[in-house]
């Protein structure tokens, strides 16, 4: 029943050879990787006005120069991340740039910040989309959290079905949102130009404002910069693009930057000219749409597409989080299970972890977007600052052609990002202080996992010998995942049983791995038969259990006993089993109910 439900929701498994079909073209990539950045125009301008309200509505004209400053930062970021895309075409973004140019610790700070940021991306986007719905239908305010959780589950299932399938669904609401806002901005500008909007609604640019301060303006600038969250996602997701991936990613980034600049500028200008004042129950975009169109079908079209893109902007997190997790897992800073592709060729463990974490955040914060945005934004600008600084050092060390211009671009970006980061800590400390707590904890966790993997690797290398165990037996099947002390210990035990035959079974996911392992095994254990079962659907259990059943049937005809020996090592700390022994436990669970097959586990105890 579980399998049937899974197939209904997720779809049929895909072969590893079908991975190329899961790559994105520029049109689909713009939809799923830019949705976060584009959707932030729905709340970025509002954050500027909320800060300026402290000086009164007369200060709203300052939103225009602040918006210009945000556009300068956007330009620097777009140019900088174009350089990162071409310099690091395999993806990884700020984590890889910081690790290679600044060192392990800055890399872990950037990687940890981005992992948390992508969780916040889902929570903020879904919460903001729910706000847009409840703005249009106030009677739904009491159901904000359940609505948000349902949307997270929906997007999770969509992503588990595969990259291209989720992109095909998401492209329509993203482009409809862009169309709706361009129509709203165009009609608004036409009404202003034709004199249908009275100029008395707003204060003129340059009007003196009592009580305004540089600190307040910098705070408003930092808040408005939250509209730039998601700009880095494309550089993390380069492997998802069709070839030539770096060129397609760079073009998609440029298109995203242009759309973001136009939409952000238009909304800020209309909000100032209309004299829009933020309200807790109604978004600024909702007020602009109502003043532009009235409460007619076009208003609900704008609100509907805004709610859709705010909710589906969470997909940027689903696209970037698993790929970043793969980079960290390959460096052994998080469990290796994040490198395993699911049935639909996506990194399903990363997708599920992201979904569970974001649902927890939504529940803890009660779906209140305004409480999440500052924490979300500061989590973005820390890696922004580190990646720009890392690129500066790269150009200074390597001095490629045109390096001075590249250095200038990254220098400007690093300086502005640093200012924005500091302003968040100075002006919104009581909202962003959790960063100072969870970031060190995450980095400590990264280091402990890496130390554990290193310690295990040292003990599993074939450098010492263990005394053999003497027991008698017949035909033995030994699943192996590599050439380590664990396998050597199990092999010695198997030989001590004096069977008629030992069959080592290896389940590779790629043909290259199959050939490489066969060569290593031939050199290490030439007298032990090795059977490789290529698994195009990346399943270890199914091909192995099918092989065991086949051997058992033949052995039954010959009245020969079949024994399956499952290698397993026991770390000193019990929770470390989660990192290493998922496959061993699953194999044992699937084989135990088979009649006439003896299943045993040979433990290897780690010494440290």
From TrEMBL:
Keywords, sorted A to Z: Membrane, Transmembrane, Transmembrane helix
Main location: membrane
InterPro entries tied to this protein: AA/rel_permease1 (IPR002293), APC_K+_Transporter (IPR053153)
Superkingdom of the source species: Bacteria
Pfam families assigned to the protein according to its UniProt record, in alphabetical order: AA_permease_2
Localization in the cell: Membrane
The keyword Transmembrane appears for this protein: yes
Keyword Hydrolase: no
Bilayer-crossing regions: 48-81, 102-123, 143-160, 172-190, 210-231, 252-274, 307-329, 350-367, 373-395, 407-426, 432-449
Membrane association type: Multi-pass membrane protein
Protein name per UniProt: APC family permease
Organism: Paenibacillus aurantiacus
Taxonomic path: Bacteria, Bacillati, Bacillota, Bacilli, Bacillales
